[in-house]
Amino acid sequence: MARLGSWIEPFPEGIYVKPADAWVDPSSPKPRALVTHGHSDHARGGHDQVWATPETLAIMDCRYGPQPGGHAVAYGEVLRIGEVDVSFVPAGHVLGSAQIVLEHKGERVVVSGDYKRRPDPTCAPFQPVPCDVFVTEATFGLPVFRHPNTASEMDRLLLRLRENPERCVLVGAYALGKAQRLIAELRGRGYHEPIYIHGALQRLCDLYREQGVDLGDIRPATGAAKDALRGHIVVAPPGALNDRWSRRLPEPITAMASGWMRVRQRARQRNVELPLIVSDHADWDELTDTISELQPREVWITHGREDALMHWCMTRQIKARELNLVGREDEDD
After folding, report:
1. Which residue of 99, 118, 138, 250 has the lowest C-beta tally within 10 Å?
2. What ranges does the record give for the region Disordered, renumbered to this chain (predicted)?
3. DSSP-assigned letters across all residues of 261-304
């Protein structure tokens, strides 16, 4: 009897789907690539042909230049590649993110990419798909990682801002997904003042707006008068928090929006005064609840803390294996 999922083979550089002669999220250029989302540890330029959601292709165009071999696949559309039926369903990670559903000879494999289960105003919510094999991330695959309510983290940020009207709050947020979500979450908490952004965020914020995501009044921080920034929120890439660019801001309260802010040492290493635990990845409960909901026959675990999730699966008689793919850490959660 053939091993479950024997037609899919993990390599360090990605997952090879043999009967489709295609790769899922390959880390180097391939003739055929299926891409879950636009973060650079999953989406690379240079493929001869690439299948992804329209939003992910737009992100790849923005980051890597035109993708001449791009094929846009709408959520729920089923296409045939080689001998495999392929579809893309929402993953809830960032704009355009998708789980890739692969069906061949009566078996269904879901490669989830990166995902989360809690609401996000900037992208479609995760859609559970029952399957035989579920390929899951484990970025926050330890019981210590239980993310708090996002609204409460936004309220903490706004409270600090109100308490310090002569200063600004400088929030480090990754350029794709996190920055736009942070802005949209603040709007959802009733904050409609201008939000100032670092120039490195402009192109992707513009792209989100073009894709129908309302970010409200956002303005460039560079060139703004120092007094204009007092009492306001400034969003920048994490690397800008402590560089020369930030020194011109009015006594910034340094914040960071990341799931890693659960780890106090990480906050201290970045000199973060206001750690905000806001993640675009599933926490421990979301990971385990998703596996329990889907009830796959096997779980394949990648990019993260595999051991704890492996142990959790085995104690529940769920067969599990580590894939050990390279380069599968989000650039900055």
Report:
1. 118
2. 28-47
3. GGSHHHHHHTT-SEEE---SS--HHHHHHHHHHH--SEEEEEEE
